[in-house]
Design a protein that fits this description.
It contains 5 helices and 7 strands, in the order H-E-H-E-E-E-H-E-E-E-H-H. With 223 residues, it is α+β, with helices and mostly antiparallel strands. The chain has 2 domains: 124 residues, FAD/NAD(P)-binding domain; 65 residues, no CATH class. A hairpin with a 2-residue loop joins strand 3 and strand 4.
């Protein structure tokens, strides 16, 4: 978001306040995270590490970070991520949720101590990025196979280990960086990221996925 704002409004002051030592999460290698940082800084984005903006600040009061750094601000975009929608499961006993509300599952994606319940998607407690592609490529085939085995009275045996981490971060319409977690970890720069994502933020791909024509075409549902 910061890269897109800076690209559209070059004279605006844009600052990222990041609680960790680097951007993104520890799932990705430091080299890629530092590369993203350098690209944003070259675009004119300011970055404050090891600092936070707590809660919902009072819009009538001057904005300060937890470390006391003042930030003149017209627009604040919280980017802490969503919370898993698992409140219904808090009533299960034995308890199945982590302290952050994620569902504890085994490698067969069955709830621990509740083998007749399966879970997948962003709600599961698994050391990977929360991404839509993980569900269709990795989680769903495991759950489908194991549900069918369970219904046939067999022990579910198909296991989920992990899916390749893929991240593409646009930095305006023509820049950015991408990461593919295969082999030693493959990184790409502006040219690939522009082609893959930055030029249209994958709108055309999303339209195609729901049966619409290309991004420039009319809004017609495919029959």
């Amino acid at each position: 978001m910061s890269g897109e704002i800076k690209d559209a409004y070059p004279t605006k002051n844009v600052t990222i306040v990041q609680a960790n030592r680097l951007l993104l999460s520890d799932i990705y290698p430091d080299k890629f995270r530092v590369d993203i940082e350098n690209r944003l800084r070259r675009s004119g984005v300011n970055i404050l590490f090891n600092d936070t903006i707590e809660g919902v600040p009072n819009p009538a009061a001057p904005l300060k970070t937890s470390n006391g750094i003042p930030l003149p601000c017209d627009l604040l975009i919280p980017a802490r991520g969503g919370q898993p929608n698992t409140s219904l499961l808090k009533y299960l006993r034995p308890f199945v949720l982590t302290d952050r509300g994620f569902v504890k599952v085994s490698t067969t994606l069955q709830l621990e101590q509740h083998p007749n319940i399966f879970a997948l998607g962003d709600i599961i407690d698994w050391p990977e990025a929360k991404q839509l592609t993980k569900i269709s490529i990795g989680h769903a085939p495991v759950v489908v196979a194991n549900v069918m085995s369970y219904l046939d009275g067999k022990v579910p045996k198909k296991v989920y280990t992990k899916s390749a981490e893929i991240m593409s971060v646009s930095n305006g319409k023509t820049g950015g960086a991408s990461y593919l977690g295969l082999l030693w970890g493959i990184t790409f720069g502006d040219y690939f990221t522009k082609y893959f994502k930055s030029s249209d933020l994958m709108v055309a791909q999303a339209r195609k996925g729901i049966g619409l024509k290309d991004a420039k075409g009319p809004y017609e549902v495919r029959k």
